[in-house]
Amino acid sequence: MIEINPGQPSRQTAKAALLCLKKAVEEVKEGLIDGFVTGPIDKNTIHGEDFPFQGHTEYLTQEFNAGESLMLMVAQDLKVGLVTEHIPVKEIPTFITRERVELKIRLLELTLKKDFMISKPKIAVLGLNPHAGDEGLLGTEENEVIKPVIQDLKNKGKLIFGPFPADGFFASGQHAKFDGIIAMYHDQGLVAFKTLSFESGINYTAGLPYVRTSPDHGTAYNLAGKNLASESSMRQAMYVACEIIKNRRSQLVES
User: Fold this and answer.
1) Which of 54, 187, 216, 220 has a beta carbon 3.0–4.6 Å from 201's, enabling a disulfide?
2) Domain map of the chain by residue range?
Protein backbone atom coordinates (compact mmCIF):
# COMPACT_ATOMS: atom_id res chain seq x y z
CA MET A 1 0.00 0.00 0.00
CA ILE A 2 1.47 3.35 -1.07
CA GLU A 3 0.56 6.37 1.01
CA ILE A 4 0.06 9.41 -1.20
CA ASN A 5 0.17 12.95 0.14
CA PRO A 6 -0.31 15.51 -2.66
CA GLY A 7 2.66 17.84 -2.94
CA GLN A 8 4.91 15.68 -0.74
CA PRO A 9 7.44 13.49 -2.57
CA SER A 10 8.65 10.32 -0.87
CA ARG A 11 10.69 7.21 -1.57
CA GLN A 12 7.43 5.34 -2.09
CA THR A 13 6.16 7.71 -4.76
CA ALA A 14 9.58 7.69 -6.41
CA LYS A 15 9.50 3.89 -6.51
CA ALA A 16 6.07 4.00 -8.14
CA ALA A 17 7.30 6.52 -10.73
CA LEU A 18 10.29 4.33 -11.57
CA LEU A 19 8.08 1.25 -11.97
CA CYS A 20 5.89 3.18 -14.42
CA LEU A 21 8.93 4.34 -16.38
CA LYS A 22 10.36 0.83 -16.58
CA LYS A 23 7.00 -0.53 -17.74
CA ALA A 24 6.80 2.06 -20.52
CA VAL A 25 10.33 1.17 -21.66
CA GLU A 26 9.46 -2.52 -21.60
CA GLU A 27 6.30 -2.04 -23.66
CA VAL A 28 7.90 0.18 -26.30
CA LYS A 29 10.70 -2.37 -26.72
CA GLU A 30 8.11 -5.10 -27.20
CA GLY A 31 6.30 -3.06 -29.83
CA LEU A 32 3.14 -2.70 -27.77
CA ILE A 33 3.29 1.10 -27.94
CA ASP A 34 4.86 3.45 -30.48
CA GLY A 35 6.24 6.02 -28.04
CA PHE A 36 5.64 7.48 -24.61
CA VAL A 37 5.35 10.72 -22.69
CA THR A 38 6.96 10.96 -19.28
CA GLY A 39 5.85 13.22 -16.48
CA PRO A 40 8.41 15.15 -14.41
CA ILE A 41 10.18 13.20 -11.65
CA ASP A 42 11.57 14.30 -8.32
CA LYS A 43 15.29 13.69 -8.74
CA ASN A 44 16.05 13.85 -5.01
CA THR A 45 13.81 10.92 -4.08
CA ILE A 46 14.22 8.77 -7.20
CA HIS A 47 18.01 8.93 -7.31
CA GLY A 48 19.64 5.86 -5.80
CA GLU A 49 20.96 2.39 -6.50
CA ASP A 50 18.06 1.55 -8.83
CA PHE A 51 18.26 4.90 -10.63
CA PRO A 52 21.82 6.33 -10.54
CA PHE A 53 21.04 8.89 -13.26
CA GLN A 54 20.63 12.65 -13.33
CA GLY A 55 17.30 12.34 -15.15
CA HIS A 56 15.18 10.65 -17.80
CA THR A 57 17.52 11.54 -20.67
CA GLU A 58 20.54 9.73 -19.27
CA TYR A 59 18.46 6.72 -18.17
CA LEU A 60 16.75 6.26 -21.54
CA THR A 61 19.97 6.73 -23.50
CA GLN A 62 21.50 3.81 -21.62
CA GLU A 63 18.33 1.72 -21.58
CA PHE A 64 17.98 1.91 -25.36
CA ASN A 65 21.72 1.44 -26.00
CA ALA A 66 21.77 4.70 -27.94
CA GLY A 67 25.36 5.59 -27.09
CA GLU A 68 24.48 9.27 -27.22
CA SER A 69 21.26 11.25 -27.38
CA LEU A 70 20.30 14.89 -27.58
CA MET A 71 18.17 16.75 -25.07
CA LEU A 72 16.07 18.87 -27.42
CA MET A 73 13.61 21.52 -26.28
CA VAL A 74 10.84 21.88 -28.84
CA ALA A 75 8.25 24.59 -29.46
CA GLN A 76 6.46 25.41 -32.68
CA ASP A 77 9.16 27.70 -34.09
CA LEU A 78 12.01 27.08 -31.66
CA LYS A 79 14.18 23.99 -31.17
CA VAL A 80 17.14 24.15 -28.79
CA GLY A 81 19.53 21.22 -28.29
CA LEU A 82 22.21 20.92 -25.61
CA VAL A 83 25.86 19.87 -25.85
CA THR A 84 25.94 19.25 -22.08
CA GLU A 85 22.90 18.48 -19.93
CA HIS A 86 22.66 17.82 -16.20
CA ILE A 87 26.19 18.50 -14.99
CA PRO A 88 27.65 21.08 -12.56
CA VAL A 89 28.55 24.39 -14.21
CA LYS A 90 32.21 24.11 -13.14
CA GLU A 91 32.55 20.88 -15.17
CA ILE A 92 31.04 22.20 -18.42
CA PRO A 93 34.31 23.28 -20.15
CA THR A 94 35.78 19.78 -19.85
CA PHE A 95 32.88 18.44 -21.92
CA ILE A 96 33.20 21.01 -24.69
CA THR A 97 35.32 18.95 -27.07
CA ARG A 98 35.34 18.86 -30.86
CA GLU A 99 33.98 15.33 -30.87
CA ARG A 100 31.08 16.11 -28.55
CA VAL A 101 30.11 19.41 -30.19
CA GLU A 102 30.12 17.81 -33.65
CA LEU A 103 28.14 14.80 -32.42
CA LYS A 104 25.41 16.98 -30.92
CA ILE A 105 25.17 19.12 -34.05
CA ARG A 106 24.85 15.99 -36.19
CA LEU A 107 22.18 14.55 -33.89
CA LEU A 108 20.22 17.80 -34.17
CA GLU A 109 20.52 17.84 -37.95
CA LEU A 110 19.41 14.21 -38.16
CA THR A 111 16.35 14.67 -35.94
CA LEU A 112 15.31 17.84 -37.76
CA LYS A 113 15.35 15.83 -41.00
CA LYS A 114 13.88 12.55 -39.77
CA ASP A 115 11.51 13.62 -37.02
CA PHE A 116 10.47 17.12 -38.13
CA MET A 117 10.72 16.67 -41.92
CA ILE A 118 13.06 19.62 -42.57
CA SER A 119 15.07 18.56 -45.62
CA LYS A 120 17.96 21.04 -45.31
CA PRO A 121 18.01 22.35 -41.73
CA LYS A 122 19.74 25.60 -40.88
CA ILE A 123 21.44 25.35 -37.49
CA ALA A 124 22.89 28.04 -35.20
CA VAL A 125 25.60 27.24 -32.65
CA LEU A 126 26.04 29.35 -29.51
CA GLY A 127 29.41 30.14 -27.96
CA LEU A 128 30.35 28.94 -24.50
CA ASN A 129 31.76 32.19 -23.12
CA PRO A 130 30.35 35.73 -22.88
CA HIS A 131 30.46 37.47 -26.27
CA ALA A 132 31.33 34.06 -27.78
CA GLY A 133 34.83 34.41 -26.34
CA ASP A 134 35.47 37.90 -27.77
CA GLU A 135 38.20 36.51 -30.09
CA GLY A 136 39.97 34.76 -27.23
CA LEU A 137 39.82 37.53 -24.65
CA LEU A 138 37.09 35.81 -22.62
CA GLY A 139 37.87 32.16 -23.29
CA THR A 140 39.47 29.88 -25.86
CA GLU A 141 36.79 27.25 -26.45
CA GLU A 142 35.27 29.14 -29.38
CA ASN A 143 38.55 29.44 -31.32
CA GLU A 144 39.96 26.05 -30.38
CA VAL A 145 36.84 23.87 -30.47
CA ILE A 146 33.59 25.38 -31.69
CA LYS A 147 34.72 27.37 -34.75
CA PRO A 148 36.77 24.50 -36.24
CA VAL A 149 33.80 22.16 -35.92
CA ILE A 150 31.48 24.65 -37.60
CA GLN A 151 33.93 25.26 -40.43
CA ASP A 152 34.47 21.56 -41.00
CA LEU A 153 30.73 20.93 -41.22
CA LYS A 154 30.29 23.90 -43.54
CA ASN A 155 32.96 22.45 -45.82
CA LYS A 156 30.81 19.30 -46.00
CA GLY A 157 27.81 21.28 -47.20
CA LYS A 158 26.00 21.65 -43.88
CA LEU A 159 24.13 24.87 -43.04
CA ILE A 160 25.82 25.45 -39.69
CA PHE A 161 26.47 29.00 -38.43
CA GLY A 162 28.10 30.64 -35.41
CA PRO A 163 29.29 30.71 -32.76
CA PHE A 164 26.85 33.39 -31.65
CA PRO A 165 26.88 35.21 -28.29
CA ALA A 166 23.93 33.66 -26.46
CA ASP A 167 22.50 36.83 -24.91
CA GLY A 168 22.24 38.94 -28.04
CA PHE A 169 21.21 35.96 -30.16
CA PHE A 170 17.87 35.51 -28.44
CA ALA A 171 17.32 39.16 -27.51
CA SER A 172 17.65 40.29 -31.14
CA GLY A 173 15.33 37.62 -32.46
CA GLN A 174 18.02 35.82 -34.47
CA HIS A 175 16.70 32.48 -33.24
CA ALA A 176 13.72 32.88 -35.58
CA LYS A 177 16.02 32.59 -38.61
CA PHE A 178 17.13 29.02 -37.78
CA ASP A 179 15.49 25.59 -37.74
CA GLY A 180 17.54 24.51 -34.74
CA ILE A 181 19.97 25.89 -32.17
CA ILE A 182 22.77 24.20 -30.27
CA ALA A 183 23.51 25.60 -26.81
CA MET A 184 26.62 24.61 -24.90
CA TYR A 185 24.97 23.99 -21.52
CA HIS A 186 21.63 23.55 -19.80
CA ASP A 187 20.75 27.02 -18.55
CA GLN A 188 22.20 28.78 -21.58
CA GLY A 189 19.58 27.15 -23.74
CA LEU A 190 16.73 26.57 -21.31
CA VAL A 191 16.50 30.03 -19.74
CA ALA A 192 15.82 31.54 -23.15
CA PHE A 193 13.62 28.66 -24.30
CA LYS A 194 11.38 28.68 -21.24
CA THR A 195 11.11 32.47 -21.30
CA LEU A 196 9.89 32.35 -24.89
CA SER A 197 7.89 29.10 -24.86
CA PHE A 198 7.22 27.91 -21.32
CA GLU A 199 3.63 26.68 -21.67
CA SER A 200 3.93 25.51 -25.28
CA GLY A 201 7.42 24.00 -25.07
CA ILE A 202 8.31 20.36 -24.50
CA ASN A 203 11.40 18.19 -24.02
CA TYR A 204 12.22 15.57 -26.68
CA THR A 205 15.00 13.01 -26.36
CA ALA A 206 16.40 12.95 -29.89
CA GLY A 207 18.65 10.18 -31.14
CA LEU A 208 16.74 7.28 -29.56
CA PRO A 209 15.23 4.42 -31.57
CA TYR A 210 11.90 5.18 -29.87
CA VAL A 211 9.95 8.39 -29.32
CA ARG A 212 9.91 9.97 -25.88
CA THR A 213 8.70 13.44 -25.00
CA SER A 214 7.88 15.20 -21.74
CA PRO A 215 6.67 18.59 -20.53
CA ASP A 216 9.42 21.18 -20.13
CA HIS A 217 8.66 21.91 -16.47
CA GLY A 218 9.45 20.20 -13.19
CA THR A 219 7.21 18.56 -10.61
CA ALA A 220 5.82 21.84 -9.16
CA TYR A 221 4.81 20.11 -5.93
CA ASN A 222 4.16 23.55 -4.45
CA LEU A 223 1.15 23.86 -6.78
CA ALA A 224 -0.47 20.55 -5.79
CA GLY A 225 -4.14 20.90 -4.91
CA LYS A 226 -4.28 24.63 -5.74
CA ASN A 227 -5.77 24.39 -9.24
CA LEU A 228 -2.96 26.63 -10.56
CA ALA A 229 -0.82 24.28 -12.67
CA SER A 230 -1.16 24.45 -16.45
CA GLU A 231 -1.63 21.28 -18.48
CA SER A 232 -0.49 22.95 -21.73
CA SER A 233 3.04 21.55 -21.87
CA MET A 234 1.91 18.01 -21.09
CA ARG A 235 -0.77 18.20 -23.78
CA GLN A 236 1.77 19.55 -26.25
CA ALA A 237 4.19 16.75 -25.37
CA MET A 238 1.51 14.26 -26.42
CA TYR A 239 0.88 16.10 -29.69
CA VAL A 240 4.58 16.26 -30.58
CA ALA A 241 5.07 12.56 -29.79
CA CYS A 242 2.21 11.72 -32.17
CA GLU A 243 3.64 14.03 -34.84
CA ILE A 244 7.09 12.45 -34.69
CA ILE A 245 5.68 8.91 -34.77
CA LYS A 246 3.59 9.87 -37.83
CA ASN A 247 6.64 11.40 -39.56
CA ARG A 248 8.77 8.32 -38.91
CA ARG A 249 6.03 6.03 -40.21
CA SER A 250 5.64 8.06 -43.40
CA GLN A 251 9.34 7.65 -44.15
CA LEU A 252 9.12 3.89 -43.62
CA VAL A 253 6.27 3.75 -46.15
CA GLU A 254 8.25 5.83 -48.67
CA SER A 255 11.35 3.66 -48.31
Assistant:
1) 216
2) 65-254
